[in-house]
Amino acid sequence: MNVDxxxxxxxxxSLSPWIPARADGGSAEARLGRLKAEIEVLLAAFCxxxxxxxxxxxxxxxxxxxxxxxxxxxxLSAPVECVVRDAELxxxxxxxFGARTLIxxxxxxxxxxxLARHVVMRVLERxxxxxCEAASSTSGQEIARDAEPSLTPAKMQSAPSxxxxxxxxxxxxxxxxxxxxxxxxxxxxxxxxxANDEGSQGAVERDRDLQLRLESNVASADIRLSAIFDDRAVxxxxxxxxxxxxxxxxxxxxxxxxxxxxxxRSLFRCEIARDAExxxxxxxxxxxxxxx
Length: 292
Known about the structure:
Blueprint: E1 3-6, H1 28-50, E2 66-71, E3 73-74, E4 80-85, H2 86-96, H3 114-139, E5 144-145, E6 155-156, E7 167-174, E8 177-184, H4 185-191, H5 200-217, H6 236-240, E9 255-262, E10 265-275, E11 278-286
Antiparallel strand pairs: 1-7, 2-4, 2-6, 3-5, 4-8, 7-8, 9-10, 10-11
């Protein structure tokens, strides 16, 4: 899964500051990374468990028109807009009705009757609900879609409801769709704002909950580890003796740094350290800003 975030200027908002687990709160990029990661986990779980969409079911659309819905969210100063390409949205709706053969068909927007339009609206609202769950987890505050019924239908997106400098875009590639959330930058700045360490124990508990949810989704993630072997001189004869499970003696170094990447995109800067007979990765910070 890929995550892409762009943001504008940050001002004061209506939420009280998020209380980080660490007293210094880490960098703004790292705190935003927590929000992105939580959105990714919850959307993946929604697609896998509620829609039963596998990562290999279909390729994402590149040309179909954008479909969007805006909903007011309690605790935020402006509505949250959810944007999905029409062809990918059709696949999610098919999966909701139990379809197992999912085909993305680019082209003009699908003609939908009243029932189909209602289903589209509910699917997009569920995606906004998952965003709210992620925001609640990372901010420690109750963030939820307004319970009041809304008559505003889903529509073809013409232009974002907020100007460039006042909105933040969070884009997530998950299963069969690329989902984009547009929200007021003021709200995002408060969701990830640093504060003193009062109540840090509660934040630590939220960190543990997030860790458990991430661990529960590791099995569905494709991970490949690559490295450059330059520790010592190795002869071709020695290489020929290597087999699956072979143990290769390396000179131990206290620590070094590396970049954790996914789908060609740098995600985190890491520190590699030795812990007894194991090597461990310590995430130093979100590295996605390198790619915009």
